[in-house]
Design brief:
The protein contains five helices and four strands. The protein is α+β, with helices and mostly antiparallel strands. The chain has a single domain (11-142), classed as Beta-Lactamase (2-Layer Sandwich), CATH 3.30.450.150. The longest helix has 17 residues, at 14-30. InterPro entries: GlcG_carb_metab_protein, PduO/GlcC-like, PduO/GlcC-like_sf.
């Protein structure tokens, strides 16, 4: 079978992963925050992790779960939660899935409209701060 007919998906490169992590750390430092930054590939497999000095230990697993959720769902997990919140059965179903955090701080990384990976941030005082750092990382890595 010719390889041109094989299904392929974009994936988060090491170079882009490093730029995302560096941009996230810079954004956190600018805000005086200590966080953990995680990137995953298109399948939600860990690509890179950086836990800043002083970041809470619990932020490691939380950042991983946020990144995995963003890659698995293909949208920010907090936006997904807002969409399913009116449906208690859906909320219960997703709330019981291991490794899936439906809170702010995870963003998918898209390439040509397809999920190539995701970033997860945890450890700031609020999930909104985590999301702002993730957004800054995407903007900083792209520029």
């Amino acid at each position: 079978m010719p390889t041109s007919t094989w299904a392929t998906r974009p994936t988060l490169s090491l170079e882009l992963s490093r730029r995302l992590v560096d941009a996230a750390v810079a954004a956190a430092e600018a805000g005086g925050l200590r966080v953990t930054v995680v990137t995953v590939d298109e399948s939600g497999v860990l690509r890179e992790v950086r836990r800043m000095d002083g970041a809470p230990l619990v932020s490691l697993q939380t950042a991983m779960s946020k990144a995995y959720a963003a890659a698995a769902i293909g949208m920010p997990p907090d936006d997904f939660f807002a969409a399913i919140e009116p449906d208690p059965a859906a909320v219960a179903s997703f709330a019981n899935r291991p490794g899936l955090a439906l809170i702010a701080g995870g963003l998918p990384v898209l390439a040509d409209g397809q999920v190539a990976g995701a970033i997860g941030i945890a450890g700031a005082m609020t999930a909104a701060q985590d999301r702002a750092i993730a957004e800054a990382a995407l903007a900083g890595a792209a520029g």
